[in-house]
Batch of 2 targets.
Target 1
Amino acid sequence: MKKLLDKIVREMAPLNHLTDESVVKGALADTRVQCARCTAAHCCSQATLIFLPEAFYIANKYPVPPELWAPWIVLGTTMEQSRRDDYFGQNISCVYLDNDKRCNIYDRRPSCCRVYFTACEPALCSPHHRESILVMNATNFHRQWAELMMVYNVGLGIVPQAVGALPRMMVIATKLLERPSQKYLHDQIWLDFDGPLATS
Ligand code: SF4
Ligand code: SF4
C-alpha cells in the first residue's frame, strides 16, 4: 500500500499542472471571469467533495494535526449529509480559508477548486444569490482526470467512484500516510457524486 500511496503523491503534481493549463486555456480565457482578481471567496463555503487520492497529495505536504481529526470528521460528515444548497446557505468557510480569505493549501488545492470559476460579479457568488451564480465549464480535461482518480481508487481497493468531504478525506489520508492500513481504509464510508449531496 505504501508504494501505491507514494506513486499517487508523485503523479498528482503533473496532473494538477495539466488541469491548470486547461483552465488557463478555457475559463480564464473568458474575460467575464473575475476569479483571478476576486477576494470574496464565497465559493469556499460550498460543500467540497474530493477523491481520496487528491487528499494524499495534499496531506503529504499539509498533514492534519491530530487535535483536528475529530472535529474535521464531524464537519466532513455534516457536509456529506447535507443537501448542497443547504450547506452553502450556512456560509461555513472551508477549513483551509484563512482570515484574509486566502487558501492555506493553494498550491495543492483539490481539483474541484482548481476548475471552479464563475462568470458573474463576485457578490453574486454568495449563498444569498446562489440562483444567479453562472458557473463556467472550465475544462474538458476534468472528466479524464476523474477517470484516472477512479483507477487509483480501484488500486486502493475501494469503489471506483468513491469520494468524500474534504475535511474527512484529509483526516483519512493523513492517518493512512502515517500508518498504511487496508483495514482502516475499508472501514470508511464513501459517497459518490450522486450521493446525499444531490440537490433534488
Ligand atoms: S467563484 Fe465567485 S467568489 Fe469564487 S473566486 Fe470566482 S468570483 Fe470570487
Ligand atoms: S481548499 Fe482552498 S480553494 Fe478549496 S474551498 Fe478550501 S479554501 Fe477554497
Note: Helices lie at 2-25, 52-61, 69-81, 84-89, 111-114, 141-156, 166-178, 182-186.
Target 2
Amino acid sequence: MAVEALDRHLPWPFILRVVDLLAAGPPPRYQVQYRHYPQRHPVLPLARHGKMDLEYEKDDVETRPEDRLLDDVALVNTKTHQQQPWTWIRATFSMIASLLLAGLLLKTIAPASFALLIGRDGGGAHESRATAGDQYLLGVGKGDITGPVVEINLMGYADPNQLGTGLRQRLYSRAFIVGSIDKPEDRFVYLVLDTQSGDTAIRYGILDGLKALGSSYSVYDHRNVAVTGTHSHAGPAGWLNYLLPQITSKGFDRQGYQAIVDGAVLSIRRAHESLQPGYLSLGTTKVSGANINRSLYAYLNNPAAERAKYNVSASDDGSVEKDLTLLKFQRASDGKNIGVLTWFPTHGTSMLGNNTLVAGDNKGVAAYLFEKSTRDEATAADGFVAGFSQANVGDTSPNVLGAWCEDGTGQMCSFENSTCSDGKTQYCHARGPFFRVKDNGQSSCFEIGKRQFEPARALYDSLQSTSTPVQGSFVKSFHTFQNMSEFTFVLPNGTQVKTCPAALGYSFAAGTTDGPGAFDFTQSSTSTSPVWQVVGGLLKAPTAAQKACHQPKPILLDVGEMTVPYQWTPNIVDVQVFRVGQLLIIVSPGEATTMAGRRWKDAVKSTAATIFAQDSPSSSSTSPVVVLGGPANSYTHYITTQEEYTIQRYEGASTLYGPHTLAAYINLTLSFLPYLGASSPPVPAAKLGPLPPDNRNRSLSFITGVVYDGTPLGKSFGDVLTDAAPSYTRGTPAHAVFVGANPRNNLRLEGTYAAVEKLNGTSWKTVRDDGDWSLVFNWKRTNGLTGTSEVDIVWETEEGADPGTYRIRYFGDQKNALGKVSSFEGVSRSFTLV
Ligand SMILES: [Zn+2]
C-alpha cells in the first residue's frame, strides 16, 4: 500500500510505529556513503571545498555516519570503506607531524613575514599589524543538510498541511572556526544552518559527531560550539528536540534530523581541516528595504527617550535595525579571502505559508549570491563561504510593504492586533516587494536576499582597502545551561525577580502577519496531527502561581509544566558568548526583538569595556563590537522587552519565561562575561549548569517511510513524459517532466536531483544543479496505490544566461516492493537557448 493510502487510515501509522519499535534496532539512517575523499592535512590544508570534492556512491549496506566520518578522517583514499588499523596509525602520525610542522612555522615566521606575503605595507611588523590586526587560526567549511524535500511538513509556519513538494535550493551548514595562534585550544565554531533555528537535539548530535571524529576534535564541546539557524521557514521540519514543534510535523523525522547533523559535522570538519593563520576584519553597512517592524504597536510601548536614540531619519526610524555587520576571514598565506560572516535581522518568511518548495529563504539567497560572486575572483579562495546569520529578528519582517487584509476591503490590518473586518487575523497577510507575483513569495524572497547581498558585497569590496582589523589575540568563549523555570535574580534597580516555567499566551495561536493563525491546534477535534491526538488530552491548566508569574500574559499553553510524554518546550536554556579581539558574539537561544537585542548588546558592550581595560596586554584602546546571532543552540521562541511583553502581541505571548525573560538573559550573560577576559580561566565545571533533556530516542513519530515506487504501464523510471521544447528564449522557463520516484529514497546529500547540462564542443558540462535558485525540482505523487510519481524539472532561465545548447537531467532513486533502492537517470532532449 502506498503512502497516501496509509495516511488516510489513522491506525496504520500507529501500527507502523509499533512495528518500528518492535524492530528495536538502531533507527535507520540514510545510505549515502562517501567513498572518495581528497587527502587533507589537519592544519595546513589543501583548501578545497564544495560539492565537487566529494564523490558519493549509494551503498546498500547501511552505514553509521560515524564510520563514514572516521573513514574520511583517516585520510583513506580508497575504494573500500573497510577500516584498517594501519590507516589509523598512519593518520595519527600524519596529524602529529602536521601539527608539529605548523607549530614550528608559526614560531619561526614572524607576523611581518605574513604581512609581506599578503602584499600589504611591507613596512615592518608594527605597521602591518596595525593595518591587518592580529593573526588567528581561521577555517571555513560548508556541508549539505538538505533533508526530505517531499511529504514532510515545513518548519516555521506550524501548518500541518504545508508539506514539501520539491526543492528550489539545497540547504547548507556553514561553519566558521576562529582560534588563538598562541593557545590553539582557545577557539570557537560558529555554525550558520539554513534551518528555522538551532536546536538541542541537533546540537547533541553534532557534539556526538565531533566526538566520533577523534582526539583532534575533542577541543570542541558545549563551551565553544554555536549552532545558529537562519530562521528560514522553508525547510523540512521534524528534527527538533521538544514536543511542541513536533506536533505539526507528525513527530520526529530521523532522516531529516540526521541530514542536518551529518552536514553540520561535515562543515565543521572541512573548516577544521582548513585551519590556518589569517586575519579578521570588521565593517558595518546599512541595508535598506529588507526589513520592517511587524509589531510596531508593541515596539512603541518602549520608552520614547530610548526609541529616540535610534530614530535617525524617516527611512531609518529605529523600529528595526538597518545595520549589517560583516566579519571578513582572510588567510595569511596568500592574502586570499576565505569567507565572510554577516549579521542582519529579518525574518525568514519571504517564502510564504503556501510555499511547498524547500529553500534557504532570503538568507539562503544572500549566501548563494555572495558565494557565486566570488567564484573565479583572484582575491577569493576556492571554497569561499558566506554565512548570513540571523540577528535580533523577533519583531522584524521581510514583507516590507506591510500587512493588508485580503478580504476585499483593501484595508491594512489593524495596528493594535493585526485583525481584519471579521475581527480575526486569518485574512491579514504581509506583503513582500513582489507580492503581486503569485509565486508563494519566491520573487520577493530573491529580492530580499539580493537586498542583503548587495550592500554586504559592497562592504566586502571596501574592506579590501580600508578595514577595521580585529585586534587582540584573545579567542574566548563561555556557555552555560540555566533552568529558567526557577531562576531568581536581582534587576539593576535592586529588585529581586524570577522567571517562570515556560508558557505561551493566547496571541501565540493567532500567529503573525507573516503567517497568521496556523498554529491553532487547540481545536483538537479538527487537528490533522496524529501527535495531537495522542498528547492533546494531556494539556493541563496552569496553577495560580504560574498564572501570577506570567502576568499580564494570559496562558494558553502551559508547556513548561508539561513533561508527558516528554518536555514540550525548553526550560533549560543555553547562554553563550564568543569573543575574538574586540568582537563579542552573543549567541541567543530565542528570537530577541529589535529593542530587546539592543538592550542585551548594550549591556554586554559596557561590561566588556571594563573587562577590556583589565586585559593584559590591554585591549582597552579598541572599543567592543557586539553582535547578536540566533535563534541558536535551542529554540526558546521569543524574547521581548518587558514593555513589549505588556502588549502581548505574538512576540510577547511567545516570550516563554515571563516578563523578566530578557532581564534574565542579560543577567546571566553579564555574570559570565568576566570569563572572556584575556587571561581569564575557563568557566569551572560546576557552573556549566544542568544538561537539557535529550529526546532524540524517545520522540513520537508518525511519519511513515516510502513504501515503494512504481511506473505507469510500459514506462521506466526516468522516462521523459513531457519533453523540453526545441528552443527557449532567455528569461522564460524551460522544463521537462519525467517518470519519477520518491526523493526520500535518497537525499543525494552533496549531490543533486536535477541538473542543467550545456553542450561544450562534443561534451556536456553541468552548469546548474540543486544549489541554484533558478533550477526547481518538483515532485508529485500521481497514484498512491501503484506508487507512481512525476518529476517536473524547471529551469527558470536567467536573462543573462549564456545562449547555447542545453539539456535537463534527472537523478532519481526508486524503491521496489522488496524495499531495495536503486538509482536511475533521465534526460531531456537537447534544446537551444536564444
Ligand atoms: Zn520567528
Note: The first strand starts at residue 32 and ends at 36.
